[in-house]
Amino acid sequence: MSLCRRAFFAGIGFAAVASSARAQSWPAKPVRLVVPYPAGGSTDVLARVIAEKLTAALGQQVIVDNKPGASGNLGSDLVAKAPADGYTLVMGNNATHATNQSLFPNHPYDAAKDFAPIALVAGVTHVLVVHPDVPAADIRAFVAWAKAQGGKVNYASTGNGSASHLTMELFKGLAKFDAVHVPYKGTAPAVQDLVGGQVPTSFQTMPSVIGQIRAGKLRALATTGKTRAAALPDVPTVAETLSPGFESDAWFALFAPAGTPADIINRLNAETLKAMALPDVKEVAAKAGFDVVTSSPAELGTFVKSEIEKWAKVVKASGATVD
Length: 323
What we know:
This protein is of the alpha/beta class. The protein has 12 helices and 10 strands. Strands 1, 2, 3, 4, 5, 6, 7, 8, 9 and 10 form a 10-stranded mixed β-sheet that branches. Helix 2 (42-58) links the parallel strand 1 and strand 2 (62-66). The N and C termini lie far apart (67 Å).
């Protein structure tokens, strides 16, 4: 074997040993999992379940750090610009890593290029809820009531450009009524005002409102999936009652800064998929209204690109803008 060939293969061997050593030594300190929303919302709930399991699997504390603001852009941008060493992650979703890119003219990061995808972890349907004082027992009665208010109905969203914002904008266009957008800085404050009657209606993710629905504090009128939600089997979908083909689900996924070593990404993917397959995690997810949906890093990367393209068209067609 020539000297050049020996050097070449020695280089490959050294790289493999270095990669293996890095994977075994990481993590050597706590890992921060940024949630770009306030505590209590769907993204936060899911992140805390995963953080607990990753803490046990990695042997280091995975600390959830809520960094709300700008419809999730603030916390996500913080991670996009963090060192690519595996110690800063973000629990992203369809807003932070798809729709926001089309809604914000000065969006601070590129959702496809500035992150290393780790794993898709869950999907969830939205549910149209109203305060019990709203005189509507079903979605058709709600539309009739909203039209009768002459555009004066307020609706809550979890922020400008959020899935709850876009879903209502799409629904308004299809049902041909008007309403006033009231954006909140996350799910928890929006749901709090819904329950308190400060705003009468909203599209919210199932985990965010299932407890209030079961307690009678909010009334569910319709869900937004292709089929009825297992958590609310008696509640019809928008598609089956009012607008065939209507669908608006949310998704959640883990990301690291672009350039994070592949061996760290692959380990995080493996441990995350193991966590999501645990019976107790599946049980918690089902009760909260999540559907466990996982992926490889490559599959998530392809999915994010397709979602960016899909929602860019939706944003343009709906006329939704950042307030």
